[in-house]
Automatic annotation (TrEMBL):
<protein>
    <recommendedName>
        <fullName>biotin--[biotin carboxyl-carrier protein] ligase</fullName>
        <ecNumber>6.3.4.15</ecNumber>
    </recommendedName>
</protein>
<dbReference type="InterPro" id="IPR045864">
    <property type="entry name" value="aa-tRNA-synth_II/BPL/LPL"/>
</dbReference>
<feature type="domain" description="BPL/LPL catalytic">
    <location>
        <begin position="7"/>
        <end position="195"/>
    </location>
</feature>
<dbReference type="GO" id="GO:0004077">
    <property type="term" value="F:biotin--[biotin carboxyl-carrier protein] ligase activity"/>
</dbReference>
<dbReference type="Pfam" id="PF03099">
    <property type="entry name" value="BPL_LplA_LipB"/>
</dbReference>
<dbReference type="InterPro" id="IPR004408">
    <property type="entry name" value="Biotin_CoA_COase_ligase"/>
</dbReference>
<keyword id="KW-0092">Biotin</keyword>
<keyword id="KW-0436">Ligase</keyword>
<dbReference type="Pfam" id="PF02237">
    <property type="entry name" value="BPL_C"/>
</dbReference>
<dbReference type="InterPro" id="IPR003142">
    <property type="entry name" value="BPL_C"/>
</dbReference>
<dbReference type="InterPro" id="IPR004143">
    <property type="entry name" value="BPL_LPL_catalytic"/>
</dbReference>
Length: 272
C-alpha cells in the first residue's frame, strides 16, 4: 500500500535538478524508497528519478539491517541508469556522501565544523551518525544504480550499531523537505564533478578533506572477523587503507568504528 505526498510539506526539486531532467515521485507512505526505485528500474524506468517517502514501513540499511524510519526524517533514493562504467560505479557512494555533507551544511551551517565522513559514506556530527547511504545496483540491458539516503532531521534511534543523532538534537532543526531540496541540488553538482568517474580524483580529495585525520585509530569488522589499525587514506578505487604492524591493509567492505584507546592494540600504531 502506498500513498502520494501532497501539500506544503511535500518535497520539491531544486530548479537546477529540474533543468537537468531529473524527476521526483514523492510518497506519504512506502515500504522502501530503494525497493520502489528498483521496481521501477525493472519496469524500464531509466531516471534520473528521485523517490521520497515521509514514512517507510520496511526501510533497510547496509547488510540488510533495518533502517528506523520515523516520520520527520528524510528518506530518499535516486535512480540512475549507466552512471559510470561498471568497474567504477561503486565510486558513487563517495559522490553521495559529499552531496549529503554539502546539503546538511547548507541547511545547518552552524554544524559545519562538526561534520565528518565515515568510510565509506556515513555522515557524522560530533562523532555520531547523522545520515547513512545504501547503494544498490542491478544489471539487465544496462546498469541501474539506486542511491538510498536517510538523514535524521527530527529523530534518531536510541539503540543502534553506532551512536546516532539528528539535526534537531544538535540544535539545528530542519524539515525533511528543506533538506531534500538542498540534497537534490548538491547531488546534481557532485555527479557533474564526478563525470562518470573521470572526476574521481577530485571527489576522492574532497572526501579525504572531510574524512578522518591520518593516523586516526580504527576498528573494521568484516566477514565475521575484524582488524584494527591507523587510517591512512582511500585508494583510487575507494578502498579503505589502514596501517598496522604487518603493513597497510586494503579493505573493500566492512563496518568502521573508532578505537577509544589508540594504544590498546599494537596494530594501531603508525609506522615511521
Amino acid at each position: 500500500m502506498t500513498s502520494y505526498a501532497v501539500g506544503e510539506n511535500a518535497p520539491t526539486l531544486d530548479p537546477a535538478a529540474v533543468a537537468a531532467g531529473v524527476s521526483l515521485v514523492a510518497f506519504d507512505t512506502l515500504d522502501s524508497t530503494n525497493a520502489e526505485a528498483l521496481r521501477r528500474a525493472r519496469e524500464g524506468e531509466a531516471g534520473p528519478l528521485w523517490i521520497t517517502a515521509a514514512r517507510q514501513t520496511a526501510g533497510r540499511g547496509r547488510r540488510g539491517r533495518a533502517w528506523t524510519s520515523a516520520p520527520g526524517n528524510l528518506f530518499a533514493s535516486l535512480l540512475l541508469s549507466d552512471p559510470a562504467p561498471i568497474p567504477e560505479a561503486s565510486q558513487i557512494s563517495f559522490v553521495a556522501a559529499l552531496a549529503v555533507h554539502d546539503a546538511v551544511r547548507a541547511v545547518a551551517p552552524a554544524l559545519a565544523g562538526r561534520l565528518t565522513l565515515k568510510w565509506p559514506n556515513d555522515l557524522l556530527c560530533s562523532g555520531k551518525k547523522l545520515a547513512g547511504i545504501l547503494v544498490e545496483g542491478e544489471t539487465r540491458r544496462t546498469l541501474a544504480v539506486v542511491v538510498g539516503i536517510g538523514i535524521n532531521c527530527l529523530h534518531h534511534p536510541d539503540e543502534a550499531l553506532y551512536p546516532t543523532t539528528d539535526l534537531a538534537a544538535e540544535g539545528e532543526p530542519a524539515s525533511a523537505a528543506a533538506v531534500f531540496t538542498a540534497l537534490a541540488a548538491a547531488m546534481q553538482a557532485r555527479l557533474a564533478e564526478w563525470d562518470r568517474s573521470r572526476g574521481f580524483p577530485s571527489i576522492r580529495a574532497a572526501w579525504l578533506a572531510r574524512g578522518p585525520a591520518p593516523g586516526t585509530p580504527l576498528r573494521v569488522r568484516f566477514e565475521g572477523t575484524e582488524t584494527a589499525g591507523a587510517f591512512e587514506s582511500i585508494d583510487d578505487h575507494g578502498n579503505l587503507l589502514i596501517s598496522g604492524d604487518e603493513g597497510v591493509h586494503k579493505i573493500a567492505a566492512g563496518d568502521v568504528f573508532p578505537l577509544a584507546q589508540p594504544d590498546a592494540l599494537s596494530s594501531n600504531r603508525r609506522r615511521p
